[in-house]
Amino acid sequence: MDTIIRKSEKKDRAAIWAILKPIFRTGETYAVDADISKVDALVFWCDGNHVAFVAELAGRILGTYYICPNQGGNGGHICNCGFATHDAAQGKGIARAMLEHSLSAATDMGFRAMQFNFVLASNTRAVKIWERYGFAVIGQIPDAFNHPKDGYVDALVMHKRL
Amino acid sequence: MDTIIRKSEKKDRAAIWAILKPIFRTGETYAVDADISKVDALVFWCDGNHVAFVAELAGRILGTYYICPNQGGNGGHICNCGFATHDAAQGKGIARAMLEHSLSAATDMGFRAMQFNFVLASNTRAVKIWERYGFAVIGQIPDAFNHPKDGYVDALVMHKRL
Questions:
Q1: Cβ-Cβ contacts under 8 Å for B35 (sequence gap 6 or more)
Q2: Do A155 and B75 touch (CB under 8 A)?
Q3: Which of A80, A66, A68, A59 shows the shortest CA–CA distance to A15?
Q4: Structural element, H or E, at residue A65
Q5: Which of B133, B145, B140, B127 is closest to B106 using CA atoms?
Q6: Is the entire prediction scored with pTM above 0.80?
Q7: pLDDT in tens, B102-138
């Protein structure tokens, strides 16, 4: 069964929130208030200068990601992305499909590079995946994240030219 | 004559814009749209989770800076700042006074570190000042800024524990 990835629409918002809510509530990966409201979370993920996508498998939305300029003005040629997958999507290749889609979509949108500002150094699985896709660590922020279980951990800045 | 640095008030907004406008219009230092409106510029500088300050010399506002959390949630213990000085303030020590004030204010606000996300590597004067005050380069973003005169230049991520 193929994963279909497409731009999100208003009707997808409940499904996006169902993915984001448990991720934000744990406070273990994203630098977002753990008690963020549904409205604020969806504004953050989908609105402003963010373009949000959803990944569907057999008609069910199991993943979502956004692309946005990482800086404004004369820094607007490098994009940033955020990815989130549903618990039920583990092992189905959704995350990788979204990453590949994002690299292609960002290139089509004219971005010259992709940058992640805040990859937890302790999230070695994610770091390895990004590196396999050509991302390099270009910075390391000491004690950047106060992980609920692990305490202060570093965050990496990762970058890939498109 | 001493520089007085204090939290900004609504009445200071015209003076803040007078400082920001030429800096933003040149598009040579901040990753902000060069044609940003006065309203949007002041919202960016002073509102949301930003706390803005002004530096007065002989009753005239010649500098401004803001402090904000650099990330949300469990990343909210590191702050970010932006600084701007009026052309007429060159050589009067306003920039250094604001930097020293910001380090003290950020500490009082409970931040554990200060991070600059986007210091142009070509701005060697600024980089030297930050380093003199204990900031370290913890990252370098290739071709991060499309400088109107110099073309693509790197940006540095700089960090200092408080």
A1: B25
A2: yes
A3: A59
A4: strand A60-69
A5: B133
A6: yes
A7: 999 999 999 999 999 999 999 998 899 999 999 999 9
Q: Number of A:B CB contacts under 8 A?
A: 97
Domains (ranges, CATH) in chain B?
3-161 (3.40.630.30)
Q: Which ipTM did the prediction report?
A: 0.93
B109/A contact by beta carbon, under 8 A: no
Dmax (CA) for chain B in angstroms is 42
Q: Which two tokens stand for residue B25?
A: 């219009």
Question: Using the beta-carbon criterion (under 8 Å), do B142 and A157 form an inter-chain contact?
Answer: no
Per-residue pLDDT, averaged over A107-117, amounts to 97
- The separation between CA A65 and the C-alpha centre of its own chain, rounded to angstroms, equals 5
C-alpha–C-alpha distance, residues A150 and A33, integer Å: 17
- Which residue among A30, A141, A155 sits closest to B73, beta carbon to beta carbon? A30
Polymer length in residues for chain B: 162
For chain A, positions 75-94, list CB contacts with chain B under 8 A: 75-78
Candidates B117, B120, B141: best to mutate against A (most CBs of A within 10 A) is B141
Greatest distance between any 2 Cα atoms in chain A: 42
How far apart are alpha carbons B108 and B114 in whole angstroms? 13
The amino acid at residue A36 is I
A chain contacts of residue B140, beta-carbon cutoff 8 Å: 138-139
CA distance readout (Å), B89 to A68, A103, B61, B84, B92 = 36, 45, 9, 10, 6
